[in-house]
Amino acid sequence: MQYQLKINGETRTVDAEPGTPLLWVLRDGLELTGTKFGCGVAYCGACTVHVDGSPTRSCQTFIEDLVDSEITTIEGAQDKVAQAVQAAWREKDVVQCGWCQSGQIMSAIGLLSENPKPSDDEIKDYMQGNACRCVTYVRINDAVKLASQKLEA
């Protein structure tokens, strides 16, 4: 079946069976491989993208539910908040293996878009749905705080 989806500001036509997770449409159908497969059950957060501006687990979001939605992947995250988060990630040298990082970054963008000055507890609460195999949580939290400061400046 064909679906038209708005992904990263561009309308794309994809062939997929109903019930196909967005993750596989992005990775296999559109070759947008920045979004990662982690657990497949929406637990780890590696597959996080934005749907209508909200962080969403793409492994459990089905193609037929997205026809009128705006989807943003890590490749399309380019607004002011995204730029601040990406710069902070580099400055704090967050990445180790990198597998979780696109999901972490998309969640951080979501947090700072909703709450540009989160407290430490708010950062922890918001980001806790993203697992990091390398346990870089301290650097992740520091990068979110730095990105918040960059947005203030």
Automatic annotation (TrEMBL):
Q: Which domain of life is it from?
A: Bacteria
Q: Where is the 2Fe-2S ferredoxin-type domain?
A: 1-77
Biological source species: Thalassospira mesophila
Q: Could you tell me what this protein is called? A: Isoquinoline 1-oxidoreductase
Which GO terms label this protein's molecular function in UniProt? 2 iron, 2 sulfur cluster binding; metal ion binding; oxidoreductase activity
Q: Which PROSITE patterns match?
A: 2FE2S_FER_1, 2FE2S_FER_2
By its UniProt entry, which InterPro entries does this protein fall under?
A: 2Fe-2S-bd, 2Fe-2S-bd_dom_sf, 2Fe-2S_ferredoxin-like_sf, 2Fe-2S_ferredoxin-type, 2Fe2S_fd_BS, Beta-grasp_dom_sf, Diverse_Oxidoreductases
Keyword check for Nucleotide-binding: no
Keywords, in A-Z order: 2Fe-2S, Iron, Iron-sulfur, Metal-binding, Oxidoreductase
